[in-house]
Structures are given as C-alpha cells and as structure tokens.
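DM from R.C. (forwarded with permission)

"hey, sorry to bug you on a friday — could you get me a structure for this? deadline for the figure draft is monday and I only need the backbone to look sensible"
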Amino acid sequence: MKADNALSLDGDQMLVKLAALANPHRLRIVAALTAGGRNYVSRLAREIGISRPLLHLHLQKLQEAGLVVSQLELSPDGKALNFFEVSAFAIELTPAAILKAAASPTLKTET
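My reply, with the result:
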C-alpha cells in the first residue's frame, strides 16, 4: 500500500489525520498494532487495557482517517472476528506541507 505524503494532502485530509492521532488512546492503538501486527478487537482491548466499546470508538476514528483498516473473518469455531491493522502512512509535517494544506478551499472559508 502506498503511504500518504503530507505534501499531497489537502488541508482537510491533514486535519483529519492529525486529529485522529491527537489522542493518547489512539496513539497507543497505532503503536500496539504496529508492534504486534494485525489483531482482533477483543484481544487488542485486553492488551491495551480499555473496554471494547471505547476501543471501537477509537478504531472508528482511526479508520475514518485512513490510518487503520479492518477485515471481518470467521474463526475456526465460527465466531466473527474483526481484525485491524495499521495502514501504510507517512505524514511529513513541515512548514511547506502546512503552507500547501492551508491553501485548500475549505480552510480558506473557515473563520
């Protein structure tokens, strides 16, 4: 999968990705998935030490930002397991990237 380049992100895309990462739980989720590879929700919730509903909320934000992907699979005993893994991404946060992102139409109209 091709990693995002911050210079190709518009302002809205950059804000969504940065906002998704601006939370300690979500940083821990990305770190756990990066270190341990793909994982299913129940096991990941135990490893991180948060409830499954709270984990689902944070995984949804990360998925909406394109930072994680999920795949529903059946276990050998027939249980549905939702596996998550980190998407390939790179966000280069430089003054030049911010300058380009700030020029996007949506950001120009906000006050």
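R.C.: lifesaver. Residues 24-36 form the longest helix (13 residues).
me: no worries. DSSP finds six helices and three strands in the chain.
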